[in-house]
Amino acid sequence: MVPMARVLRAEKARWRRDVSARIPWAGLVVGGGLGLLSSGASVSPGWTAVLAWLNPWAVFVGPMLAVLVVAVSLSGDRASRGGGTWWRPVARWQMDAAKSAISALFILMTTFGAVAGVLAVGTTHEAIATLPWARVAEVVATLWAGSVSIAAVIVRVGRRLGLLASLGIGAVWCVVGALAAESPFAFAVPPAWAVRATIPLFGTHSNGITLPPGSPLAQIDPLPWSLACIGFAVLVVTVRRREGGLPGVDHLTAVPAPVTHGEDRAPRIVLSRPSEAWQPRRAGREASSRSVARATLVALRRTPLWIVPLVTTASVLLITRWQPPTRVLQVVPLAVVPVVASVTPLIVWGRLRPAWRAVATRPVALVRPALAAATLTALVTSCSVVVPLLVLGAVGVDSTRVRVLVAMCALTGVMWTCVQLVLTIAAGRVVATAAGIIGTFISLLIGGSVLADRFWRWDPWSWGRLTEPTRVAFAVPVMIATTALSCLALGRVVRRVAAR
């Protein structure tokens, strides 16, 4: 058995060049944005009111970025086959414990960056001398403990489920935690523990509304709930069924063949000349647009892309069991549009990327299959937001308003689908996923509150909710221009990827 210290050193070395190690910078960016909102909105004086703007981080952004940190690292391990760890006598609990320990360190850095960003902007209207340092340390520790609990869950299940499924688990975790944080049964719901611990620290309900004077929720002690989060994470990582062998043995399905020495026994491989090997083949009949579209459809035939409209429609109908359709109508532009526009490009490019260099050798311009993929992705996104709106319109919602929302949500979804597709191809899944999480967070924070009256121009993720003629006249040309520019940029990024 390999000593635990060596496993930790190997995990640390793996994270040194991992793209997930850059995610903590997102904490500083989000924290700065929350600080700007706290200074631009009318809030009560004092540092408590400034710290209360970390409520969206505690409820949604922090846990989702923690999920992203772990899921991206696990995806890298899967791509590199564990970096050799799978073939060595390392127990699974050692790998999970090392992954959890290093992830917890980066999650702490992300949390500290978010709090520092809020406080840095808060110093513009509050005296730094009055900053309650003990309360700040308590906030950092509480937020970190809550994020570590969901990170431990992803460490256990993320290797099998992948990035998108892990993000789905994180989203469900956030929703359950926010809904159950103030219920009398919160002690039995682990996702609610982290949110409940932040209620007395921020002086707000789980939805961000300030607590009334004398509220019993303000008397909650955060320490037991934070310790419960840490204990839950430890249990998830360490408690497991008895293993029948070392992890590497499962991967070794056959004994390696002996190596033969000698030049006469080596297989002779004839390599083509460099001038013929790397240049794409352009001979032959140019593929038609119909064949390019058909090939794209065949490539995406067995992907989860086609169930996205069904999932969004079923989710909206499920919410109508607890909320009236008029309120559920706002869920589509605020949440469904940014989420779907972020997820569909990840599915499409995840399927097309392995074969993209082979596509470059075919007698077809690369921009044509790229535009076919973008068109198909935008079509699925449009169906995913239009169908729920039409269903809500059929159950009695104002038909005139539904028609306006259908047009605006479809256009917003197409714009962000093209932008996210370009970002996914050019910068990778991690950056695109982080951008999607932050965009969804901004849409819910600004578009779903009174902040929309002041900051709606800076929240293009929720432009699908606009119905006023003056605002629509501003947003529509911007979205059309952004979509056109994204399509132009798509040709450049796909050629760059094929040349790598």
Description:
The protein has 500 residues and is mainly alpha-helical. The chain has two domains: 4-247, no CATH class; 289-498, no CATH class. 68% of the residues lie in helices and 0% in strands. The chain is built from 21 helices and no strands. It has helices spanning 4-16, 24-40, 47-51, 55-79, 92-122, 133-161, 163-180, 190-202, 222-238, 247-251, 274-277, 289-299, 308-319, 325-328, 331-352, 356-359, 367-394, 399-427, 429-447, 452-455, 469-498. Helix 5 crosses helix 6 and helix 18 (399-427) runs parallel beside helix 21. The chain is globular and about 65 Å long. It starts with a helix and ends with a helix. The model is unreliable at 244-286 (pLDDT under 50).
Keywords summarizing the entry:
mainly alpha; 0% strand; membrane; transmembrane; transmembrane helix; ABC transporter permease
Short note summarizing the structure:
With 500 residues, the chain is an all-alpha fold. The protein has helices spanning 4-16, 24-40, 47-51, 55-79, 92-122, 133-161, 163-180, 190-202, 222-238, 247-251, 274-277, 289-299, 308-319, 325-328, 331-352, 356-359, 367-394, 399-427, 429-447, 452-455, 469-498.
